From TrEMBL:
Highest taxon above the source species: Bacteria
Protein name: SRPBCC family protein
InterPro entries: Polyketide_cyclase/dehydratase, START-like_dom_sf
Upper classification of the organism: Bacteria, Bacillati, Actinomycetota, Actinomycetes, Kineosporiales
Length: 136
């Protein structure tokens, strides 16, 4: 299963940034492709995603139940789904100078360069939300 990893540094308080990122309802605000996210029971969430268009045109939207775990002590999120859309990942926020470093890792059955683009877009969305004061 291929692994994808992206990291960025953001001028934000790590604790406040993690608090924003760890709320399920905020996922569509920063995760590229996620259009809806709703808590279910325990660590379960229901997500709706619109994957990025490929050479064949726009893909169908995907609805799935997934896991979403928050480790507040490590400032880490983990998520995943089994079945036809098998994937799992982690997002971790760590202090970096006067700001925060955000690292996203994704393991998926897909091997596609667009995944790197989507992860870069996700981190860019986080930077923009912080700059606009909407991630706190």
């Amino acid at each position: 299963m291929p692994e994808y990893r992206r990291t960025t540094t953001i001028d934000a308080d790590p604790a406040e940034l993690f608090q924003f990122l760890s709320k399920v309802e905020n996922l569509p605000k920063y995760f590229t492709g996620v259009t809806e996210a709703h808590p279910a029971t325990g660590d379960e969430v229901h997500v709706v995603a619109q994957p990025q268009p490929g050479e064949e045109g726009p893909p169908e939207k995907v609805e799935a139940d997934a896991t979403f775990s928050v480790d507040a002590e490590r400032k880490a999120l983990s998520w995943g789904s089994e079945g036809p859309h098998d994937y799992h990942g982690e997002l971790q926020v760590t202090p970096h100078g006067d700001g925060a470093q955000v690292e996203v890792t994704l393991h998926t059955q897909h091997d596609d360069d667009r995944i790197n683009d989507g992860m870069d877009d996700t981190l860019q969305h986080v930077r923009e939300l912080v700059a606009e004061g909407r991630a706190g």
